Amino acid sequence: MKKNIYPYMAGGLALLGIVAATPFTPIPQDNAQPAGSFATDTGTYYYTHNGTPVEIEKETEEIVIEESVTLLKTIEQKQLGAKLDSLQNEIEQKIVKMPGTIEVYFEYLPSRQSFSINNKKMYPCSVIKLFVMAATYDQIFQRTLSEKKCTPYLEDMIIISDNTSYNVLLTMIGKGNGMQGIKKVNSCCTSLGLKNTTLHHALLPGNNYFTDGKENVTTPEDVGKLLEKIQAETLPYSSKMLALLKQCEEDSGLPAGLPEAAVCAHKSGWADTYYMDAGIIDNQFILVVFTKDAKKETVSTLCETTYQYLEKEGLLPEKREEAK
Questions:
Q1: Which residue among 47, 73, 203, 283 is buried most deeply as judged by most CB within 10 Å?
Q2: Is 186 exposed, middle or buried (0-12, 13-18, 19+ CB in 10 A)?
Q3: In Å, what is the CA distance from 118 to each residue of 4, 80, 86, 87, 106?
Q4: Same domain, 35 and 135
Q5: What is the pTM of this model?
Q6: What average pLDDT does this structure show over 200-218?
Q7: Does residue 252 share a domain with residue 125?
Q8: Given CA atoms 106, 303, 264, 296 in this order, what sign does their dihedral have?
Q9: Alpha helices for the chain (secondary structure H)
Q10: Are residues 120 and 220 in the same domain?
Q11: Selection from 26, 2, 4 nearest residue 14 by Cα
């Protein structure tokens, strides 16, 4: 039986999906054009607005179906948007009851829909290493740096969050001058549209410290947008960056709020009263949480809230048990 798509039934705007029997497909109201169609076992039949059957060329039929698919996708996007609005509201209600400063960026990867909460510049601790990782691989891609020489430092910087490795990579990018390396990383961020991210110094504790006297800053949204580019593999060596992020050893942030089977490619950071984490979860969503003067479990709590909501709303793929 031939299948047809029909987004509406007469008298209402009920989303019905794809079926195999008697669908009605509305098209623009023009007396010279059919008003709708019925699909049967013997073919698709078209009618004018007064019910008179008309013949239609195959090319026009394809246009009708294409318009219906577009309309269906539009409605689905609006429904998804409403669900993500509800998620944002739920997170905001939790944040209001929590101590400290809390900033959040969320992106649902299948549709690229996103939202931010309190998206302001903050000192990002070791989350800033994400930008150095991306800039380093960009330099490797341009053949101005050796992948073999950079890899040990990239691994230590991301997996165990080694500060000296961060400092060394900046110096390598700057051809022996750490501050020149910082300028190149900042230029890389600007070229990627990450306009709220600026590096100003090396990290302590760590060797070979250098600074211009200002503080490193970024926003949850900038971090999330960088992760989006890595997940979409639009940056050089994206797959290698993802592999490193999946090995991040510090797991008291986002991973602590996830089921054991979930895959989290992330980078956390902490210093004094700051704690933050940014990650790609199951290739389905990005979550970035920055906190200052807040409880450390804030990050894992918000991650758990997000995951459970998406799971409840059917927005995550079902986990299949491995065959025994």
A1: 203
A2: middle
A3: 45, 22, 17, 15, 12
A4: no
A5: 0.77
A6: 97
A7: yes
A8: positive
A9: 58-96, 129-141, 147-159, 163-173, 178-191, 220-231, 238-245, 297-312
A10: yes
A11: 26
What's the mean pLDDT in 24-42?
52
Reading the block at residue 185, the tokens are 């990383």
Same domain, 168 and 199: yes
Quote the crossing angle between the two packed helices 220-231 and 129-141, to the nearest 10°.
40
Q: Which of 19-33, 113-127, 258-272 has the lowest mean pLDDT?
A: 19-33
Tell whether the model's pLDDT for residue 7 goes beyond 50: no
**Beta bridge partner(s), residue 47:** 36, 53
Q: Are residues 56 and 164 in the same domain?
A: no
Residues in the chain: 324
In a domain, 175, yes or no: yes
Q: Which tens digit of pLDDT belongs to each residue from 271-299?
A: 999 999 999 999 999 999 999 999 989 99
Its domain, for residue 46, covers 4-62
* Whole-number pLDDT of residue 72: 56
Do the beta carbons of residue 237 and residue 158 sit within 8 Å? no
| Exposure of 323 in the CB half-sphere (CA atoms within 13 A) | 0
The domain total for the chain is 2
Give me 168's structure tokens: 């060394």
Least confident range from 6-15, 31-40, 133-142: namely 6-15
